[in-house]
Write a structure and sequence with these properties.
The complex is a heterotetramer, with two copies of chain A and two copies of chain C. By secondary structure, chain A is an alpha/beta fold. Chain A has eight helices and 15 strands. Chain A folds into two domains: about 170 residues, 3-Layer(aba) Sandwich (Rossmann fold); about 140 residues, Hypothetical Protein Tm841, Chain: A,domain 3, CATH 3.30.1180. By secondary structure, chain C is an all-alpha fold. Chain C is about 70% helix and about 0% strand. Classes of the chains: A alpha/beta, C mainly alpha. Chains in contact: A-B, A-D, B-C. At the A-B interface, helix 1, helix 6, helix 7, strand 12 and strand 15 of A face helix 1, helix 6, helix 7, strand 12 and strand 15 of B. Bound molecules: adenosine-5'-diphosphate (ADP) (2 copies) and magnesium ion (MG) (4 copies). One magnesium ion sits at the interface of chains A and D.
Chain lengths: ~325, ~325, ~200, ~200
Amino acid sequence: MNHADTMLAESLDGFAAAHADIVLLATDREFVRRKRNKPGKVALISGGGAGHEPLHAGFVGHGMLDAACPGQIFTSPTPNQMMNAAQSVDGGAGVLFIVKNYSGDMMNFQMAAEMLDQENAVVIVNDDVAVEDSTYTTGRRGVAGTLIVEKILGAAAERGDNLQQLKILGDAVNKATASMGVALTSCTVPAAGKPTFQISMNEMEVGVGIHGEPGRRRVALGSADSIAEELTSAVKKDLGLKADQEVILLVNGFGGTPMLELYLMVNATRKVLAKSGVTVARYLTGSYVTSLEMAGCSITATVASPEFLSLWDAPVHTAALRWGM
Amino acid sequence: MNHADTMLAESLDGFAAAHADIVLLATDREFVRRKRNKPGKVALISGGGAGHEPLHAGFVGHGMLDAACPGQIFTSPTPNQMMNAAQSVDGGAGVLFIVKNYSGDMMNFQMAAEMLDQENAVVIVNDDVAVEDSTYTTGRRGVAGTLIVEKILGAAAERGDNLQQLKILGDAVNKATASMGVALTSCTVPAAGKPTFQISMNEMEVGVGIHGEPGRRRVALGSADSIAEELTSAVKKDLGLKADQEVILLVNGFGGTPMLELYLMVNATRKVLAKSGVTVARYLTGSYVTSLEMAGCSITATVASPEFLSLWDAPVHTAALRWGM
Amino acid sequence: MSLRLVIQNATQTLVDHLEELTALDQAIGDGDHGLNMKRGAQAIQAKLADMEGTSLNESLKTMGKTCVAMIGGSSGPVFGTLLMTLGKELPENPTHQDFALALRASIEALTKLGKAEVGQKTLIDVLDPVQKVLAQDSPNLIARVRQCAFDSSLATANMDAARGRSSFLGDRAKGHVDPGSRSMALIISSICDTLTKA
Amino acid sequence: MSLRLVIQNATQTLVDHLEELTALDQAIGDGDHGLNMKRGAQAIQAKLADMEGTSLNESLKTMGKTCVAMIGGSSGPVFGTLLMTLGKELPENPTHQDFALALRASIEALTKLGKAEVGQKTLIDVLDPVQKVLAQDSPNLIARVRQCAFDSSLATANMDAARGRSSFLGDRAKGHVDPGSRSMALIISSICDTLTKA
Ligand SMILES: Nc1ncnc2c1ncn2[C@@H]1O[C@H](COP(=O)(O)OP(=O)(O)O)[C@@H](O)[C@H]1O
Ligand SMILES: Nc1ncnc2c1ncn2[C@@H]1O[C@H](COP(=O)(O)OP(=O)(O)O)[C@@H](O)[C@H]1O
Ligand SMILES: [Mg+2]
Ligand SMILES: [Mg+2]
Ligand SMILES: [Mg+2]
Ligand SMILES: [Mg+2]
C-alpha cells in the first residue's frame, strides 16, 4: 500500500507497537525479539523472507521463539541479522536455529552458524510433500509445518531442554510432519507489481509453494472434497499414517482465503482421515504461514505422540498464537 | 469450493469439530453455542449472515458470547434460530441480543424478541461512520466494532452483571465506538459466482460495507498513510477524540488482506492518532469481521475508560479470540 | 383456477429470475436477494401438498410462516409479514375491495415492522400503488394491477433508498430498480397471468 | 580503465535489468531476484567512494561482504562468496590465468556452500564454462568470454533445476533461463564491454 521499499519497515514498526507487551524490534529492524531473556534457556531463532506473516515474528514470545529475523519479501534474511539476533537473545545455553529448507535460507544460516561464537545447532524443516525427493530436487521445501516445529520446540525449550535434546526433538517433529497445498490465485510481490503466476478463475495449482512458486501441476478447479482427498492422501502416504494413529491437523490459509473456506477444508479433511481410521487429536485453523494475499490453503499433519501433544498444549503467548496464559 | 448450497453447512461442521472443546453445533445447524451453560448468567446471543467469519461463531465461549446464529451468506438468520438459541443457552437471568444495524437483522431479531418468553433486551451496534446519519439513511451500519461490544459485554456478563446493566453498558460501548473501512477488491458471493462490484487494480472503495455494498465514493488507490489519515479522521471526528484520550484500536482485515498490510495500517493509524495526542491503550490486529475474500481493511476505535479496559483485558476463550486462559 | 397453480407459478417465477434478482441486489445491496427469494419459493413449493384443501387464509399464513422460518434477511420478515397479515385480514371469498383492505393492513404492518414509508425504495412502493388500483372499481382490473406493479417497480429506480442495505448508498442508488420491488412485481404479474389464463 | 568504472557499469546493468530479472525469477522461482540484485548493486555503488584507492583484492572483499550483509536470499551468499573468494585468491596484477585459477577456487567454494554442481541450472553453469575459456590462451579472449557467458546463460534454459527454488518444479523449469545465470552473464558482459572500450 505505501511505497513498496518502506512497506516492510513500516509493517514491522506497526507490529512492534501493537505487541509492545511481548516483543522488541531491534535497531535497523534486523530482528524481532522476546522482550525479556530467560537465563539458562536455549534461545530459539527462526527467520525467513517476509510475506509469510504471521510466520515468524508472530511466533516470538513465551513458549515459542526467542527471536525472528525478517528478510525482504520472499528473501532470506542475512547472516548479519541472525548473528546479531543470536547475540541479543543468548541465555547462555546455546542457540537453536529453525530453518526452512530453501537454498537461500540454508546458505545464510550456514554462514551465520560458521561465524557464530555461541554453541549452536540447526533444525531444518522440510515438510512439503508436493515434490518427491528425486534426483532433481534439493529435498523438500519447508512450509506450514514450521509452525508445529516451532511450537513444540518452544515448549520444550521453555521447560528447560538442552541444545542437544532440542535438536533431536526438532528433527523428530519435522520427520513426523507433512504438508501439501493448493492455490486458487497467485500472489503479487509488491515491488514486482504483477502476479507471480497467471491462473484462471477455474484452475488451481496443486502443490504450490509458499512463495507463489508454481506447483506440481495445474488442473481444473475441484471441489473441497476432492482437494482434501488429494492433499490428505499425499500427506498420509508420506507419513505412513495407519488406523488408530492420532494427528495434529493444521489447515492453513495462504492469506486470501476466508475462514469459511478453511473450516470447509477442515471438515473435508477430517472426513478423509476418518475413512482410514486416523483421528485428529488437535486442530489449528487459520492463515498462519501465508504467501501475501494468495488464495488457497495447505493441510499439515503431525503424527501425535503423547509427548508432542503435551508440548503442543503447553502455554504459549505470542502475537499470533496464544493459549493457556 | 464445494457446492455453494452445502458450503455453509460443511464449514459449520468443520468449525464445530475443530472447536469441540468449547462449542456445540445445534440440530439443523441453527446456532453455535457454548458447551456448558453458566447458571445465573445473562445469555449473550448474536448472529448475522455468514461470510463475516470468524464473527460471530468464532466469538462463542468463555468471556464472550453464549450463542451465535449463522444466517446464509450475507443474510440475517431467522427468528426461529434466535428463539431456539435463546431457549438453549438461557441461564435464568435473561437474554441479551447483540444486533448489527441492518434492516434484515433488526426485523428478524425484533420478531424473535416479540415471540420470546424469556426476559430479553437488544443492543444495537451501529459503529460505521462512513454514511452520515441523514434523512436518507436508516442510521449507520454495524461493522467491526461489533467485536469490541461483544468482548466487553461478554466480560461483564461473566462477572455477573444483570440484563439491565448489560444493556446500558452495551449501548455505552457502542456509542464510544466508531469504524470506517476501505476495499481494494470486491468479494464474490459463492452462489452468485461473480464479484459483487467491479473495481480496477488502481482504485479503492472508501466507506465500503462488510457485504461488499458499494461505499461512499470510488477514488484512486492511495498510500497507506493517506488511507489511514482519511479513515482515522472520520472516526476521530465522530467520537470527538481529544488529546490525552486513550482508545482501543482494532485494525480489521476484510478477509483477503495479508497481515503485513494490516500492520502497515496499524503503524500509519497510530501515527495519525499520535499527532492529535491520542494514545492507543490496546491493539487488536487481524481479520475478524470479514467480507468473504474481500481485500481491504477497516479501523475501529473505542474511547477507552478504565472500566472498558479492564473488561477488555478480562480472560476470553473462544475460537478466534483468546487470552488470559 | 386452482390456488395451487397460482402459488406454483408465482414461486416458480422467482426461481426463474434468480440471476436478475441477484444482479439487482449486487448493484445496490449485498447480492443475496435472488437466493433468498429462491429459498423461500422452494420452501413454499415443498409445502404445496400440505396446503392442498386448506383455505386461502390458512395457505397464506402457512406461506408467511415458511418465509419467516426459511428466508432470513430482509425478505423473510417482509414477505412473511405481508403473507401472514393477508391471511389474517382476508375474509372468505374475498372481493377486490377485500384484497385492497387486507393489503392496506399489510402495508401498515410492514411499516410498523421495518419503518419504511412510501417513496423509500422498498417493495412498499409496489404494494401501495397496487393497493390503490385494487380499491377502485375499474374495468380490466387484473390488467391494470399487472401494469401498475410493473410500472411501480421500475419507478423505484428514481428513488433514493432510505431503508435496507441500499440506504447506505445515498445518491448512488439512483438509477437502479429496488430488488424487493422487482420480486413483488414478478409475483403480482404471475398471479395476474394465472388468473387471466384460468 | 578504472576499477571504479568497471564496478559502476556492472552494477548499473543489474539495476537496469530489474524487470527482466524479476520476470525470469517469477517464471521459475519466487520473483525476488531482480530486487535482490538491485539492492546488492546499489549497496556496492554506495561504497564506491570508500573503495577508491584500495587494491582489487580489497575491493572484491568489500563487495563480497556487502553482498552477504545486504542481499539475503540465495544471491547474497552466492555472489558474496564468489566475490570474497576472488578477493582472497587473486594475486596482485593478475593475468587471465590467475583469473581462471581464482574462479576455479570460487566455484569450489560455491559448491561447498550450496551443494550445486555443473548442470543443475544455477549461475555455476555460467561460471564454469567462462572459467574454462579464461584458462586458455586464445585470441580475442575478452570477446570469447563475453560470448561464452551469454551462451551459457541461455543454455540453462534446457536444464532441469536441481538447486534453489526452481528445483521444486521438476520438468516445468525447462525452457526458462535461470535468473542467477542471467545476472552473472550481464555482469561478465558489462565488465568485458568496459574493458574493451577502455
Ligand atoms: N425496512 C424494510 N421495509 C420493507 N421492505 C424492505 C425493508 N428493508 C428491505 N426491504 C426490501 O427487501 C429487499 C432486500 O431483500 P434481501 O436482499 O433479500 O435482504 P437484505 O437486504 O437483508 O440483504 C429490498 O430490495 C427491499 O425491497
Ligand atoms: N545452491 C546454489 N548454488 C549456486 N547458485 C544458486 C544456488 N541456489 C540458487 N542459486 C542461484 O541464485 C539464483 C536465485 O537467486 P534469488 O532469486 O535472488 O534467491 P532465492 O532463490 O533465494 O529467491 C538462482 O537463479 C541461481 O542461479
Ligand atoms: Mg527469494
Ligand atoms: Mg442480505
Ligand atoms: Mg440483499
Ligand atoms: Mg528468487
